[in-house]
Amino acid sequence: MCEELIRTILQDVNNIVNENITKMRKNGECFNIFEVSGINKSEVKMCKILAELLSPVGCHYQNILFLKGFVRSVLKIEIDDDELRQSQVTTEYLTDKNRRIDIVIITPQRFIPIEVKLYADDQINQCFDYFNFSKNKSDITSKVYYLTIDGHLPHENDGLTPVLVDNEIVGYEEITPLSFLKDVCKWLCEIAQMILDKPMLYASIIQFKEALEKLGGNMNKEINNEIAELISKSSDSFKSALYISESVDIAKEKLLLKVFEMLESGMNSSGCFFEQIHNKYDYKFNDYYSIQNYYQKKTFPALVYEYKKIDDNKDIWFIIELGAWGGLYCGFVLAENGGNPQELLLPDEELKKQFKNLTELNKEDWWFYWRYLPFHDGEYMPATNPDFKSLNEAYLSLFDTDNLKKFVDSVIRTIYEMLNDVAGIS
Questions:
Q1: Number of Cβ within a 10 Å radius of residue 6
Q2: Burial zone of 340 (CB within 10 Å; 0-12 exposed, 13-18 middle, 19+ buried)
Q3: C-alpha to C-alpha distances, 30 to 66, 217, 399, nearest whole angstrom
Q4: Helix (H, G, I), strand (E, B), or coil: what is residue 164?
Q5: What is the pLDDT of residue 157?
């Protein structure tokens, strides 16, 4: 009875989803410029858009309207209109320790730092340094606002160690966590309602909000409501839905494991002569910890190979990795004593000498050259590549065996194109 009911519910849900998607496609609701361009995957670009909306002199020409709502609704502080009119909003603000604060709101009385984290790791003592820096910049000391997808606090390496007191965690008094999904999306809805008479600006803000919502894997609310009505019809329907819900995470893990197993097999069968390294970064390490925790924690399933040994202490690794933002990429890192340094230990020119064709480095974090996977005709297409976090249509297609094989094959091709481009390996 339970199996039959589950099959019926799945079929009914499939009908609801297909009907709504057909309607959305017909109405043009599936097109989102932020998703198509991949802007919603870039912290730098997302910060620029947010800062432009907040700026009283932004190209929206709404003066302090958006900033006023943000300060009250998101930051939960009161600033009068005269002070807001004299404010500036800037990005990449350079501190005395040569660090850059993502967004800063500056008024005659305040210096308000906002650190944005979409997918990058916390740097050591980052928020702690920002707080101390900010104290000397204004009359009114501001907390550091820590803006993430889900509103979590920084990791303990930030110098602000939490302590358990009377069953409550304290120790982050200098930081106020904010969430894109809860706080910023709510604010975007509020300001959108203020500009209903400005259709182009309204549409841009709504698209920005929808792109943010998908960062957390949120599905269409209208579809969710219809499905909720379906599974609420009886206790048996809801019980069956619980079984389905508990199985979804398992299914995602199984697909992720299959992708990496196929990538590993594909690298071996394609004649890869790199020696594979089974260290703590490998997807199999610690009983597949990175696979099992990818959707609950920030882990990075990877395949690791030794490209070249420079000396007794330094190696160059080639890594295929799934990023916290949901996409695959590959590239080269410099490892010292079998670990990953936060800063490169060799000058650019010395690194380039280790490759036959590498003329320009492409640096980010501990990578000195990397590339998205796969490329299509030399370009990365975020809308058509699987997103393992937002679970886009390209991701869903991987549950079909033929599509999964095509995807893995295209990834392997891109890898060898890159290896040929930078190292002359074919």
A1: 17
A2: middle
A3: 26, 15, 21
A4: strand
A5: 43
Handedness of CA 403, 407, 408, 412 (dihedral sign): positive
DSSP 3-state of 311? coil
What CA–CA distances, in Å, run from 275 to 173, 307, 308, 328, 357? 48, 8, 10, 21, 21
Answer whether 89's CB lies under 8 Å from 107's CB: no
* Distance between CA atoms of residues 184 and 58, nearest Å: 18
Number of Cβ atoms within 10 Å of the Cβ of 51: 20
pTM over 0.85: no
Three-state DSSP at 138 gives coil
Rounded CA separation 390/396 (Å): 10
Strand-pair partners of 242: none
DSSP 382-422: TTTS--TTTT-HHHHGGGSHHHHHHHHHHHHHHHHHHHHHH
**What is the Rg, in whole angstroms, of the alpha carbon atoms belonging to the chain?**
24
d(CA 192, CA 236): 41
Does the bond joining 374 to the residue before it have cis omega, within 30 degrees of 0? yes
d(CA 93, CA 113): 9
Residue range 177-229, pLDDT digits in tens: 899 988 999 999 999 999 999 988 998 999 899 888 877 655 566 667 777 78
The continuous run of DSSP H or E covering 369 comes out as: strand 367-373
Q: Which helix (H) or strand (E) holds 13?
A: helix 2-27
With a cut of 50, which residues of the chain have pLDDT below it? 1, 157-159, 162-171
Tokens of 6: 């589950």
Cα torsion angle, 305, 308, 314, 317, sign: negative
Q: What is the pLDDT of residues 89-127, one digit of tens each?
A: 999 998 888 888 999 999 999 999 999 987 666 666 778
| Position 157, amino acid | N
CA atoms of 286 and 288, how far apart (whole Å): 6
